[in-house]
Amino acid sequence: MMALHPSEIDLTLDRLRGLLAALGHPETRLAPVIHIAGTNGKGSTQAMIRAGLAGAGHRVQAYTSPHLVQFHERIRLAAGDIPETTLTKALQATLTANAGGAMTFYEGTTAAAFHAFANDPADWLLLEVGLGGRLDATNVIDTPALTVITPVAMDHMDYLGDTLAKIAGEKAGILKRRVPCIVTRQQDEALEVIEHRAARLGVPLHVQGQHWHVTTEQGRLVFQDETGLLDLPLPALRGPHQIDNAGAALAALRVLGQTEPAFEAAVTQAHWPARMQRLPKGALTDIAPQAELWLDGGHNPAAGHALAETLKTLPPRPEILICAMMADKDAAGFLAPLAAPNRRLIATTVTDEPRSMAIAELAKSAQTAGLPTSQSPSISAALTAAARENPAARVIFCGSLFLAGEVLATHGTGAKPA
Fold first, then answer.
1. Cβ neighbours for 74, distance < 8 A, ≥ 6 positions apart
2. Are 45 and 56 in contact (CB under 8 A)?
3. What three-state secondary structure class fits 120?
4. Which of 151, 371, 383, 394 is such that its CA lies 20 to 30 A from the CA of 30?
5. Which pLDDT tens digit goes with each residue over 370-404?
């Protein structure tokens, strides 16, 4: 598939539609689709909707990207991650249907995923947008059951535009005529774009702060919409930002006609690796047995702010960030909210990833942000240095999903719950 990658970007979905036609149009034989776009929170919101539907007894599929440790994580069938034999058959069917034509890796694997989903009985399919929305390969679904737009922020500007309005326009490309859409908390500039497109398409919007509200009271999550109030446990996924994500999931489940078992499961049963994940015992805890190890894959300024707010909720403890980022990311923007007393950073790199930011460049951004910084050539070396400096520190691996994948693979626990 990589060998078939075209030399020029095709800014339409025509090539993918042709491939799907050659495959027998699997996109028309899918379970009802819930399509999710946004800059931050897509994965967590998807995980909570999936947990809710599964908790109510439904068979649920999901398509996400990127994977952390193994490609199979991207294609979740009703029984779990796609098995090797099923994946192989789906990829081979796609290559045969493509007949040597140009296609991107993402187009090919999305077509293969649809082929696998169409042959796996299920009640619901959750599709997470890979990049943008309007021209994302997942946007060939003409009549989803529901769409969801999570917070829009500045990221992937080379592809989506250099203003929040332009980026929001790309995300709003998943809206379909008269199909309801859940919209989480947005900046005014982004919400205006989403509302304008929705009005043109007759889309019933369910907007946070207008049509539904979510907050915490006395250690509980409280959700309210026109149907009534829900009093639930706090989300299993950590961080203040997960309250809004949980609200989006609950709003979606309400629109889908779900009841109490789904609401409870959504907040208590969801698992989404590398989102403020506490690492269990494994190879990395052997390096630093007294340390408290955490992992977060956020990589843009909004994610940096969310991580900083989440760390404020933990008991005070000396903190060391072990950070690597991709070269096209806003390192200064990500790190600025994380500068705090009793916190320092070790800059490192993602092994065998040519797009990883140079360690010296990342260290310079960290120092500019006000974080005392040192450098290390690998995550293991960085953790060894952290344990030597302060054996009982709280260590947070952060800055990249690619780093998160390497951490999970090195640690030996994969992307599964502890």
1. 63, 64, 65, 66, 67, 109, 113
2. no
3. coil
4. 151
5. 999 999 999 999 999 999 999 999 999 999 999 99
The sign of the CA dihedral 173, 177, 180, 186 is positive
CATH class of this structure's domain 277-411: alpha beta
Residue with tokens 């203040």: 240
Q: What is the dihedral of CA 307, 308, 310, 316, to 10 degrees?
A: 130
- What CATH code is assigned to 2-268? 3.40.1190.10
Residue 228 CB-density burial (10 A; 0-12 exposed, 13-18 middle, 19+ buried)? exposed
User: Which element (helix H / strand E) includes 170?
Assistant: helix 164-171
| CA dist., res. 204 & res. 181, Å (int) | 6
Omega cis (within 30) before 316: no
Residue type, 53: L
In the numeric block, which tokens belong to residue 266? Answer: 């959504």
Number of other CB atoms surrounding residue 128 within 10 Å = 23
CA nearest to 43, candidates 66, 61, 60: 66
Token pair 């929001």 is found at 168
The secondary structure of the chain in percent helix, strand, coil, rounded to multiples of 5, reads 40, 20, 40
Residue boundaries of the structural domains of the chain: 2-268, 277-411
pTM exceeds 0.90 for this model: yes
Per residue in 121-146, pLDDT (tens digit) is: 999 999 999 988 999 999 999 999 99
